[in-house]
Design brief:
mainly beta, 3-stranded antiparallel β-sheet
């Protein structure tokens, strides 16, 4: 494992359009919730914070997709986000999307790339 990379999960643990993996990262010495999902074959990670107000998105632990499996949804406001970019597509987020996080899939798992 390269320096500055932290293993989040095994690749097999992240199913296309399925349950996400929650993890924490440190910001200014405090833990901040984040999540990882697989969409169109690639892992995508974001801070677990709606663009509208700072609430966590998942409607049940690890459940980030809407009923169609095409969009990430805020459980509080119903805002829809594009899984590949975090861009707000509809709802009360007024164009404020999700904050993407750098991740990389390797043969030995999916890693968060710490700066």
């Amino acid at each position: 494992m390269a320096a500055g990379a932290r293993l989040i999960c095994a690749s097999a643990d992240l199913v296309e359009g399925g349950r996400g993996i929650r993890f924490d990262l440190a910001r200014e010495g405090s833990p901040v919730p984040a999540f990882l999902v697989r969409y169109r074959g690639k892992p995508r990670a974001y801070l677990n914070r709606c663009g509208h107000v700072p609430v966590e998105l998942d409607w049940q632990p690890g459940e980030f997709f809407d009923s169609t499996g095409l969009y990430l949804i805020c459980a509080v406001h119903g805002a829809l986000f594009a899984p590949e970019t975090g861009l707000c597509l509809a709802g009360r987020c007024a164009g404020r999307g999700l904050e993407p996080l750098p991740v990389e899939e390797r043969p030995d798992g999916i890693f968060f790339l710490e700066s």
